[in-house]
């Protein structure tokens, strides 16, 4: 998995608020009207009824065994309908006051509460959701289902959110697999869509409705990863890795499995370099020691990376890469020419080697750039593998370059 890199994070967050905040405020207000009306049907502002009727129907339908007709909530009938449905203990057994307090909190601009929710940092999303529900005593199923009406990711607000991600195009390739496009583009002549990503809710919107519209809970991805692989799987911070927080880095590396003669790539192994009891291990493959045993846990399993990276086309490319890198490693004159193309200072050597690699392999050398080009993680891991495992001539300089490239100042996450 590749970490999503956003160059101007503050601009990104501010632009998102400009795009969706007003719509979310409107929805919260309408839900607040409904809650207020159900708490006290005798004190209803006439201007609020038409705006609140759909939210009111949603709440009554959740509380009662049978659904109410929207026709019973037209302005002329609205108050009488609510008076009818709030007598006989049909809905009075649900205390709506905590919900009203929470909605007022979100609408209070002085505390930036709604901003904090919509642009909450990815590492704080789950805690933010849990803390709000617990602090306002609205963590029961009925409250959560009522809140879905204000945070529903439907076609109305969904189109604005998708437009935002289309405009930003924050990653070229799916961060979950680095195999397929996650760009949005249209034909300049016809206006037809040429490329289009999907948006995955990292924390599913059914279980975590407060996070349905949070920008860092929305991951641009491809169809296979979002719909075919993840589907309805419930993600968590403990058992899954969020690409806004981190990529695989060196905690997982693609490693070629060679034949008995060390000449031909027979398979691609996904090697873990993390402590067995660490969060990282669980985020990669879950609680198991081996891949594919817990397909709902760990990004490697969920996104079927072992299977997908062992298809015949990728193995063919990996064989060619290993051969190319070994030829360079074995030829001191060729390697020296790459390193010393301009001057022989360490900094120049580093730049020259990176330029050679990116020109020859047509993928990115640094982790922070992996999302820009397909298969960047795989190709870079193969490069590291060759220089780690085939020490022939003049490797010390190259190994230093490879090691340094994983330092933050050179391009690590």
Spell out the blueprint of helices and strands.
Blueprint: H1 9-39, H2 49-63, H3 75-85, H4 97-107, H5 113-118, H6 125-135, H7 141-147, H8 155-168, E1 185-186, E2 193-195, E3 198-201, E4 218-221, H9 223-230, E5 252-258, E6 265-272, H10 279-285, H11 299-302, H12 305-308, H13 312-330, H14 332-339, H15 346-361, H16 376-389, H17 395-404
Antiparallel strand pairs: 1-2, 3-4, 5-6
Helix pairs in contact: 1-2, 1-4, 1-8, 13-16
Would you write up a description of this structure?
- By secondary structure, this protein is mainly alpha-helical.
- It folds into four domains: 9-147, no CATH class; 155-230, no CATH class; 248-253 and 269-309, no CATH class; 311-413, no CATH class.
- 47% of the residues lie in helices and 7% in strands.
- The protein is built from 17 helices and six strands.
- The protein has helices spanning 9-39, 49-63, 75-85, 97-107, 113-118, 125-135, 141-147, 155-168, 223-230, 279-285, 299-302, 305-308, 312-330, 332-339, 346-361, 376-389, 395-404; strands at residues 185-186, 193-195, 198-201, 218-221, 252-258, 265-272.
- The strands form three sheets. Strands 1-2 form a two-stranded antiparallel ribbon. Strands 3-4 form a two-stranded antiparallel ribbon.
- The longest helix is centred in the N-terminal third of the chain and has 31 residues, at 9-39.
- The protein is elongated, with a radius of gyration of 27 Å.
- The mean pLDDT is 90.
Number of strands: 6
Distance between the termini: 12 Å
**Spatial order of the strands forming the largest sheet:** 1-2
Query: Unreliable segments (pLDDT under 50, ≥5 consecutive)?
Result: none
The ordered string of helix (H) and strand (E) elements is: HHHHHHHHEEEEHEEHHHHHHHH
How would you classify the helix and strand content by structural class? mainly alpha
Quick one: biggest sheet? 2 strands, antiparallel
Whole-angstrom Rg: 27 Å
Task: Give the percentage of residues in beta strands.
Answer: 5-15%
Number of DSSP helical runs: 17
The percentage helix is 40-55%
Instruction: Estimate the global geometry from the Cα principal axes.
Output: elongated
Mean pLDDT: 90
Number of domains: 4
């Amino acid at each position: 998995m590749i970490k999503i890199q956003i160059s101007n994070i503050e601009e990104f967050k501010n632009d998102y608020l400009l795009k969706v905040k007003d719509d979310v405020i409107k929805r919260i207000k309408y839900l607040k009207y409904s809650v207020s009306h159900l708490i006290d049907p005798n004190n209803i502002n006439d201007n609020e009824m038409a705006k609140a009727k759909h939210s009111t129907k949603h709440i009554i339908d959740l509380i009662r065994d049978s659904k109410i007709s929207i026709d019973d909530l037209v302005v002329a009938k609205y108050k009488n309908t609510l008076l009818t449905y709030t007598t006989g203990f049909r809905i009075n057994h649900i205390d709506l006051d905590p919900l009203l307090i929470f909605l007022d909190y979100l609408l209070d601009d002085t505390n930036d509460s709604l901003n904090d929710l919509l642009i909450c940092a990815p590492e704080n999303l789950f805690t933010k959701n849990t803390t709000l529900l617990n602090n306002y005593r609205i963590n029961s199923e009925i409250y959560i289902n009522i809140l879905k009406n204000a945070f529903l990711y439907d076609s109305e607000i969904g189109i604005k959110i998708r437009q935002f991600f289309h405009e930003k195009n924050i990653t070229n390739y799916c961060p979950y697999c680095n195999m397929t496009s996650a760009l949005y583009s249209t034909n300049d002549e016809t206006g037809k869509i040429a490329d289009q990503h999907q948006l995955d809710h990292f924390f599913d919107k059914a279980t975590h409705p407060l996070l349905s519209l949070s920008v860092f809970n929305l991951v641009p991805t491809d169809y296979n990863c979002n719909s075919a692989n993840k589907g309805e799987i419930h993600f968590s911070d403990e058992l899954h890795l969020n690409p806004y927080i981190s990529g695989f880095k060196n905690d997982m590396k693609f490693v070629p499995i060679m034949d008995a003669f060390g000449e031909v790539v027979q398979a691609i192994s996904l090697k873990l370099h993390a402590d067995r009891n660490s969060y990282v291990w669980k985020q990669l493959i879950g609680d198991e020691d081996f891949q594919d045993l817990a397909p709902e846990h760990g990004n490697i399993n969920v996104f079927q990376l072992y299977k997908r990276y062992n298809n015949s086309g990728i193995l063919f490319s990996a064989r060619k890469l290993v051969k190319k890198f070994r030829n360079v490693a074995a030829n001191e004159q060729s390697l020296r020419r790459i390193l010393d193309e301009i001057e022989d200072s360490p900094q120049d050597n580093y730049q020259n080697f990176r330029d050679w690699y990116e020109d020859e392999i047509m993928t990115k050398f640094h982790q922070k750039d992996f999302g820009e080009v397909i298969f960047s993680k795989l190709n870079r891991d193969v490069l590291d593998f060759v220089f780690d495992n085939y020490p022939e001539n003049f490797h010390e300089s190259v190994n230093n370059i490879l090691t340094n490239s994983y330092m933050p100042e050179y391009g690590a996450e």
